[in-house]
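User: Run a structure prediction on this.
Assistant: Running it now.
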Amino acid sequence: MKKRQILNTSFLLIFVFVLLSPPIALAEEYTFTLHKEFPATANPSLKVQNTSGEIKIESHPENKIIIDALKVVEADNSEEAKRRADGIEVIIENYDSKVEIETKYTPLKSKSFWEKILGFDGKNSGYVDYHILVPEKIELNIFCISGGVIISDISGGVEINVTSGDLWIKRVKGHLDLETTSGDAEISTIEGGIVASGTSSDLEIFDVKGNVNLSSTSGNASAENVAGSIQINNTSGDVSLKEVEGNIEVSTASGDVIIDQKEGGLRLESSSGDMEVKTKIFPQYKYYVETSSGYIRLLLPQDSNAEVELETSSGSLDCKLPLTVSSVSRNLLKGKLGEGGPQINLITTSGDISLGEYTR
């Protein structure tokens, strides 16, 4: 009897709650714009900090910085939208040659009866998109959370930190320093060095005149057409390098490595992964490839000159180039290609090693 009374009381409370609840309205999207312009002085710089929203920066021929900010909120009516938009503050400061932009969210105060009953936490859920035009010669410092970043046609240093958003950078003349978490990065046409780190991110790089240093955790790293040295430290992800003119150094814990190199030395190390390498041999470099668990396949021109040492603990050894053998056993093969020259060491603990011909 007591249990039935409790159930009846529960049903009554639910009925009263539904009866007194306001009608459910579909929220609409409202936008609010902000426009600012500043003359650019000598050696200008721009710093942008944004939480939730896209940042797009590109150059234009005018000697000024033009900022267009678009606030976007969802609300049941225009009055509520205005209240939410007022809680998103776009702060713009101009210090001589430096312009700084920051997005700040002011907690909203609960006003309605139902917001109090339903436990409204005061958080503002809107976002701000920025489209900024700058002179080509400028220094950039960008920080963004929960939003993508697009940068193009800049002559100057660029520093970027992005979380939960993708990154696109193209046509930059200057050093590039970036860090991305939970978002992919595509970088192309860079005249300068690149230092990039990614966590749960894929890093793709094309057409670079400068040295590249990549660090990636749980993501793939790739580069194509690089005139400079490449250094990669990768954890759990594949590495792909094409048309590289410079020394290559790769260290990966778990992932395959595929390389097509025009010129330069090699040092490749992997704990678990296969290695496929195409390269030419030059006397001033050394070539070292090692994997604990995986196969190694090295392709060289037929007329290469080098000292070769292939070693495997558990696997087969195969050489299809004209090798003058000096020592051979079940696990070791030593010899000379052509007239001899720089040292080539290929080592795997558990896997096969193959040395073949590479034609371009």
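The chain has three domains: 25-143, 148-248, 274-360.
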